[in-house]
Amino acid sequence: SGPFGKNNPDVPPGRVYRVALDGKDTWKEFVTVPCTNSYLKHMGYWDTYWGPRSAVQGIAVDPKGRVYVCDRENGRVVVFDENAKEVDSATVAFPEQVAVHPATGAIYILQRDRTSYGDAHVVLMKFDKLGKDAKVSATLKLSPKTRKPQMVLSAGKSRSLIWITGVPEG
Q1: What is the pTM of this model?
Q2: Best mean pLDDT range from 9-13, 37-41, 93-97, 146-150
């Protein structure tokens, strides 16, 4: 998810693509998340300062084949089944990245929102499940100087870790 071009009809915003790994095919549209690009007005100088962002960002797949998409414009993480049917969602303002624990089903979401020149609101959230009654079960607030964080989930047999880069404190 995430590729887009301003005023480029070939790569409109809001698209999630899939690619066969056999090398015989190009990317194909999986689903389009409705968007009007209104989030760009809020982000202001985001593109030039922290890199381009699309209306849809992070993506993850769980063991059942469901696809989790960070829908920044509509303030949610939305879940699609293998046939691109929307099956679940949770409200999260400006979700940037998502990871799903393969054994427990816990959902980790990295939220990032510009608050002022050079500062951002960056929070790692854990949800035990999604849905209309979804509640955050744990949070970790990162430094407002965090610029381009990247998150990955390491789901081990005895413990799980979330690795995050881009945090100025190290």
Answers
A1: 0.84
A2: 93-97
Q: How many alpha carbons fall within 13 Å on the CB side of residue 142?
A: 28
Reported as type and span, the H/E element at residue 124 is: strand 119-127
First to last CA, the chain: 28
Select from 106, 109, 100, 146 the least CA-distant residue to 128: 106
Residue 151 carries which side chain, given as an amino acid letter? M
Counting Cβ atoms within 10 Å, is residue 48 exposed (0-12), middle (13-18) or buried (19+)? exposed
Residue 118 phi/psi, 5-degree rounding, is 80, 0
Q: Is residue 39 a contact partner of residue 72, using CB atoms and an 8 Å limit? A: yes
Dihedral angle sign, alpha carbons of residues 9, 12, 15, 19: positive
- Find out whether 152 and 161 touch, Cβ atoms under 8 Å: no
